[in-house]
Amino acid sequence: MAQPISHLIIPDPHAHPNYSNERFKALGRLIAELQPTTIICLGDFADMPSLSSYDKGKKSFEGRRFKKDLEAVRDAQEKMFGQVAKRAPKYQPIWHMCLGNHEDRILRAVNDNAELEGTIGIESLEYDKFGWTVHPFLEPLILDGIGYQHYWATGVSGRPISGENVAKALCNKLHISAVAGHSHVLDHAERTRADKQKIFGLSAGCYVSPDYVEGWNMATAAMWWRGVIYLGDLDGRGYYDEMRQITLRKILRDFA
């Protein structure tokens, strides 16, 4: 009998040189225990504060270095993949990385500074080296009937589908099962299409350090949901038989 299809969704981890990466060790241990067939990261695995345009020129920007950003991303991956290999050496899942707007800071930096072309790029993050299949920013990954993307755009404006009822909006606007990161909040909605296929919309939260507080998120960090989502026994048409919302707090308590 074939192994049931399962997805583990890692939302917006934001590996940052100023915050501990120990949560990635715990996540690797969780992955080794659950052994989903596929792992999908919704992007912003790398925070890349050295390329932020939000507070460039401010005192808080002092000391930021691209090299430190890369070291934080590499360390996070080494911790996570290392624990998976150590605890489940024969386990070989499929890894997908949907790039987010924080990774896209690299491409924007190259676009704004042509002299950087060929010296830095997405490859600097070494995602392919660790085994991720990398999907460009805002190019959707459709997998087993479910659409994954860092965020989904609405209308001709191209702005992210967001708001208090983002999951409902994903269902109503896209008409497929769709998962997004970006907003860092947890929201879930279900619908049944005219063809009787059940679909869902999911804003999956984030996997950010509990200590992560920057100038841009001081007013909103308390609203964030931190954890990962497990979808089990997928039917291949966009629906599941099991959904588990596993908080970062539980992961750190049980797997640290």
**Number of alpha- plus pi-helical segments:** 6
Largest sheet geometry? 6 strands, mixed
Portion in strands: 15-25%
Domain count: the total is: 1
Secondary-structure element pattern, one letter each: EHEHEHHEEEEEHEEEEEH
Strand order of the largest sheet: 4-3-2-1-12-13
Overall mean pLDDT stands at: 93
Name the poorly predicted regions: none
Residue share in helix: 25-40%
What gross morphology would you assign? globular
Helix/strand-derived category reads alpha/beta
Counted beta strands: 13
The radius of gyration is 18 Å
- Multimerization state: single chain
Q: How far apart are the first and last residues' alpha carbons, in Å?
A: 34 Å
Outline of the structure:
By secondary structure, the chain is an alpha/beta fold. The protein contains six helices and 13 strands.
Annotation keywords:
256 residues; alpha/beta; 25% helix; six-stranded mixed β-sheet; 6 helices; five-stranded mixed β-sheet
What does this structure look like?
The chain has 256 residues and is an alpha/beta fold. It has one domain. The protein is 25% helix and 22% strand. The strands form three sheets. A six-stranded mixed beta sheet has the order 4-3-2-1-12-13. Strands 5-6-9-11-10 form a five-stranded mixed beta sheet, covered by helices on one side. The two termini are 34 Å apart. 38% of the residues are buried.
